Amino acid sequence: MFEFATEASGSGGVGSIFQLIWPFVLMFAIFYFLLIRPQQKKQKARASMLSTLQKGDKVVTIGGLHGKIVEITDDIIVLLVNDATKLTFDRSSISQGVRTDVK
């Protein structure tokens, strides 16, 4: 029913390998630009946010707890939740900083 044109020469092997690999290269490129690259950007932004935290910053933990940083070390943060309650968290448990300059 259908006839496909084939090359009579013996150099058809290189073209057929390229035809087999091309879809995989295309799929990897799509995955890279749609999944891998945005995730790397998010991780980089999060790492920069965690490294710039300072004493006095207001933050939100992953669990949703709001507090103000009163002590900070390389891997531990102590948050002041109300006037008397201090809670200790890992630095990685901080979800985001809270903007205080909102009008």
Summarize the structure in short.
Helix content is 39%, strand content 24%. By secondary structure, the protein is of the alpha+beta class.
Secondary-structure topology with pairs:
Layout: H1 12-51, E1 58-61, E2 66-72, E3 76-80, E4 86-90, E5 94-97
Antiparallel strand pairs: 1-2, 1-5, 2-3, 3-4
Question: Could you say which overall geometry the principal axes of the C-alpha atoms support?
Answer: rod-shaped
The number of E-state strands comes to 5
Kindly state the mean pLDDT as a whole number? 87
Derived structural class: alpha+beta
- Using the CA coordinates, give the radius of gyration: 27 Å
Low-pLDDT sequence parts = none
What percent of residues adopt helix (DSSP H or I)?
Answer: 25-40%
Largest sheet: 5 strands, antiparallel
Question: N- to C-terminal separation?
Answer: 73 Å
| Helix-strand topology string | HEEEEE
Number of helices: 1
- Strand fraction equals 15-25%
Q: How is the largest sheet built, in terms of strand order?
A: 4-3-2-1-5
Name a few traits of the molecule:
rod-shaped; 103 residues; alpha+beta
Walk me through the structure.
With 103 residues, the protein is of the alpha+beta class. 39% of the residues lie in helices and 24% in strands. The protein has 1 helix and 5 strands. The chain has a 5-stranded antiparallel sheet, covered by helices on one side.
